[in-house]
């Protein structure tokens, strides 16, 4: 078929219309539209990011959950970073992309999936693509798929067998697949038409793969056999970015409405650099456009820059984009300004991105500023190293230098390697790792290591007898059996008074430290009512039993039964603070926005500490709103209930989960009326009224994008307030105010009085200064350069010296003025030069010459300069040196 025979024109569809048309088509075929899930997989610890459409459907395909409708469709945002170095260098590599998909869980199969795909692609009601431009590949042994395609109307010469058309990722569901390619014409090809790779499925730019339909019909067994699945499934994936490039006739995905607005805005930052003029520059434009999309969506979904996990991915993407900007001569922070543009592009399907653009931009700006502050130094070093390597013809960068770039300038190793590869150099990765290990060892050796309960040694690894925690309902256990005990790293059967031991009981009311809540303390009592020891800490053993640290006051034996009594008063205070933490978490979300997420917590006896993600200051007004909202829930006397349920049911309840936490099949949910519902394994009050009062003690930033609130409840809150009242009463007594409500007025009066006194004092000082200056200004000396007035005055400081210099300039009493004053052990020195003489002698030069006499330094403009010093005894010398300077 010749290119000229392709007569059917493409519809004019933008990315939003293409996405919506796909979803609407399958909804018309009985599918339920599933929302695009968060990029952060909150219930799948096997994934760092959601990396495909089917990743959100795993629970349905593996039978864990039965879907309400076995037919589903979605447009799922996804992130893949395994080939990040190729982004910008190829036509279609992206870190974030959208995967359009339709799924069948044990419902329809090839007989429906194939005709529907053809209908969507070719029907004038839908995409209306020219059938002559579509080519299909299939697995050679899949005769059913071949026959269905032929019955659907695909021309035999457009249907090609391909041995690679089999989807298999190891044990689990697998099966043949069929791929659909769009012929973009030879003009789009990067190969000659007769090249061996110039065919649908080959490595070329002409035939673009747009859709993969997987027929999941086998189970790949551990024995490496393929057994038929009882329920066959359909899993498809169509890359939105690729399809858009077809409808917009774009050479690559980047010349589409999904990326071009970002590129065009980046051009305005770059100035003379324009997209499409230079291939090397184009790579940088593409990197920026791709990365800011991924960064924006990831942060909007709750991930934040850090040094580990997905946070490191975001940090790396930001740094790669900043470096790309440097290569385009963009020296000022710019990435944050692109965030609203991403939001505008994607607002049709992802309105929350535009809604949260200000917050996302603040996160990006903070991280960008941090990196930019050290980037120039790192780039200068790297460029020098590259130049030296080329000059020496070593063609490599040593590991220590790469580590210095990482440790001092924040350059990820991957960034250094990419930079080097662009220059034809390699980096010593083994040397980098060795330098990293050396630093980690130094840090480890410098640390104060607590070898107590925080470190669980090997002696507990194989101990698997069950231990039951009953502290949710009982704070006393009357018959707890000692299952095992250890002393100084060795398992023992008996221990003596004075020893500190680790003990596991068959049941316990003592809470083991977890989820920010500190461990319970209390007593171990024998059958005679005598205290055997004090429980000072409880941690989890490797197999999750509660491991008690006990300071013994009497002997303890394995196999013996004891009474365990939790310190009830302390426990109840901790419960109050834990419930308050949940109230605070929800209040912050309500007041500051849904982007706030818990970043850590500590629930102690006398206070609570709560860290949360939020960029920028929390205003006093917002902080008061948060505190008021928490107290409102306390005074509403809301019942606090807990329930154990399965993970999916908990999510349907709207329970808040932490991205960093892993949850099992059964979870515990704490519900505070209709105000807050969270996953939590900790202890809580029965009703919010038990908290009595909530008071925020402090709020501050503790890291990039992380804020910390410390607060108190109940009696501790009352005591905190009482201390403030006592302090106010003391101030009232000192100010002789009868009632506290009069304090603000009295303080205002005092401030006004103080201002009046200060003003009168300033006037008096100015008058005295003028009197001194009057006498000094009469002492005019003649030098070779002109007339000079040089004097030491007793004035308040530099401000008054400048005022006197203004008077001198108005009266034109000499060509040069040098004044000095000493206040305590500090010296202020001022030099003024008339306009006529400033071209001859500059004030800045003169003050630099005489400032060393007062052990100081300074500078300024040609007509006025000032200096500070710490040697009052050198004033007379400085004044003499001024005369000497002008006499030369």
Automatic annotation (TrEMBL):
It comes from Limosilactobacillus gastricus DSM 16045. Zn(2+) binds at residues 578, 582, 680, 684. This is Alanine--tRNA ligase. CDD domains: AlaRS_core. Residues 13-723 form the Alanyl-transfer RNA synthetases family profile domain. Binds 1 zinc ion per subunit. The keyword Coiled coil applies. Its EC number is 6.1.1.7. Consists of three domains; the N-terminal catalytic domain, the editing domain and the C-terminal C-Ala domain. The editing domain removes incorrectly charged amino acids, while the C-Ala domain, along with tRNA(Ala), serves as a bridge to cooperatively bring together the editing and aminoacylation centers thus stimulating deacylation of misacylated tRNAs.
């Amino acid at each position: 078929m010749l290119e000229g025979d392709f007569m059917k024109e493409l519809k004019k569809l933008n990315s939003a219309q293409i996405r919506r048309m796909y979803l609407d088509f399958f909804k018309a075929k009985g599918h339920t539209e599933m929302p695009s899930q968060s990029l952060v997989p909150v219930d799948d610890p096997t994934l760092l990011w959601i990396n495909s459409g089917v990743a959100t459907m795993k629970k349905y395909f593996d039978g864990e959950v039965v879907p309400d409708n076995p037919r589903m469709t979605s447009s799922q945002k996804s992130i893949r970073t395994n080939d990040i170095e190729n982004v910008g260098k190829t036509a279609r590599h992206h870190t974030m992309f959208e995967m359009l998909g339709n799924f069948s869980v044990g419902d329809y199969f090839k007989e429906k999936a194939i005709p529907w795909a053809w209908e969507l692609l070719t029907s004038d009601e839908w995409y209306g693509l020219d059938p002559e431009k579509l080519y299909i590949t299939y697995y050679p042994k899949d005769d059913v798929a071949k026959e269905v395609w032929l019955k659907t109307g695909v021309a035999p010469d457009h249907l090609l067998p391909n041995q690679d058309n089999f989807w298999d990722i190891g044990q689990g569901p697998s099966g043949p697949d069929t791929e659909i390619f769009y012929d973009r014409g030879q003009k789009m090809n990067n190969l000659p038409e007769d090249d061996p790779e110039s065919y649908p499925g080959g490595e070329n730019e002409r035939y673009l793969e747009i859709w993969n339909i997987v027929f999941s019909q086998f189970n790949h067994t551990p024995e490496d056999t393929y057994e038929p699945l009882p329920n066959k499934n359909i899993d498809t994936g169509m890359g939105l970015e690729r399809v858009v490039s077809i409808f917009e006739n774009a050479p690559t995905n980047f010349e589409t409405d999904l990326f071009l607005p970002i590129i065009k805005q980046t051009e305005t930052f770059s100035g003379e650099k324009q997209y499409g003029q230079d291939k090397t520059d184009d790579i940088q434009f593409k990197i920026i456009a791709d990365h800011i999309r991924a960064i924006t969506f990831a942060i909007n979904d709750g991930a934040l820059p850090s040094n580990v996990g997905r946070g490191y991915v975001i940090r790396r993407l930001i740094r790669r984009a900043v470096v790309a900007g440097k290569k385009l001569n963009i020296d000022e922070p710019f990435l944050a300004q692109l965030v609203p543009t991403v939001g505008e592009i994607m607002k049709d399907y992802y309105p929350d991105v535009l809604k949260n653009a200000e917050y996302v931009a603040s996160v990006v700006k903070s991280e960008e500023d941090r990196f930019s502050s050290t980037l120039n130094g790192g780039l200068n070093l790297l460029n020098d190293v590259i130049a030296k390597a080329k000059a020496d013809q070593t063609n490599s960068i040593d590991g220590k230098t790469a580590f210095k770039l990482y440790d001092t300038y924040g350059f990820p190793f991957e960034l250094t390697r990419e930079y080097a590869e662009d220059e034809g150099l390699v980096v010593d990765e083994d040397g980098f790792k060795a330098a990293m290990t050396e630093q980690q060892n130094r840090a480890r050796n410098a640390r104060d290591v607590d070898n107590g309960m925080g470190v669980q040694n090997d002696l507990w690894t194989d101990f698997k007898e069950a231990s039951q925690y009953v502290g949710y309902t009982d704070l006393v256990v009357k018959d707890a059996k000692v299952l095992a005990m250890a002393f100084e790293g060795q398992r023992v059967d008996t221990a003596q008074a004075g020893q500190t031991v680790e003990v596991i009981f068959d049941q316990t009311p003592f809470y083991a430290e977890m989820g920010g809540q500190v461990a319970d303390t209390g007593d171990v009592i024998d059958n005679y009512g005598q205290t055997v020891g004090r429980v000072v800490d409880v941690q989890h053993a490797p197999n999750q039993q509660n491991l008690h640290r006990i300071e013994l006051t009497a002997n303890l034996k394995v196999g013996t039964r004891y009474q365990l009594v939790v310190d009830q008063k302390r426990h109840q205070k901790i419960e109050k603070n834990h419930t308050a933490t949940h109230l605070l978490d929800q209040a912050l979300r309500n007041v500051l926005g849904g982007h706030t997420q818990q970043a850590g917590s500590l629930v102690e006896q006398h206070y609570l500490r709560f860290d949360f993600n939020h960029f920028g200051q929390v205003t006093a007004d917002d902080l008061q709103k948060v505190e008021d909202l928490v107290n409102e829930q306390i005074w509403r006397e809301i019942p606090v209930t807990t329930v154990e349920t399965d993970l999916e049911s908990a999510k349907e309840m709207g329970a808040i989960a932490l991205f960093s936490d892993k949850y099992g099949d059964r979870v515990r949910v704490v519900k505070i009326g209709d105000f807050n519902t969270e996953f939590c394994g900790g202890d809580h009050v029965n009703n919010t009224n038990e908290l009595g009062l909530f008071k925020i003690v402090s709020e501050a930033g503790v890291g990039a994008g992380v804020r910390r609130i410390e607060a108190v409840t109940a009696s501790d809150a009352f005591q905190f307030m009482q201390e403030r009242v006592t302090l106010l009463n003391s101030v009232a007594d000192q100010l002789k105010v009868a009632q506290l409500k009069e304090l603000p007025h009295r303080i205002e009066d005092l401030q006004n009085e103080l201002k009046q006194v200060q003003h009168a004092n300033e006037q008096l000082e100015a008058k005295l200064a003028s009197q001194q200056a009057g006498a000094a200004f009469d002492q005019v000396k003649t030098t070779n350069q002109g007339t000079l007035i040089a004097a030491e005055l007793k004035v308040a400081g530099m401000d008054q010296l400048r005022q006197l210099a203004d008077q001198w300039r108005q009266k034109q009493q000499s060509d040069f003025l040098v004044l000095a004053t000493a206040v305590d052990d500090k010296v202020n020195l001022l030099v003024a030069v008339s306009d006529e003489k400033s071209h001859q002698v500059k004030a800045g030069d003169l003050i630099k010459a005489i400032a060393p006499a007062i052990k100081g330094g300074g500078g300024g403009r040609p007509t006025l300069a000032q200096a500070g010093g710490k040697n009052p005894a050198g004033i007379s010398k400085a004044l003499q040196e001024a005369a000497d300077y002008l006499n030369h």
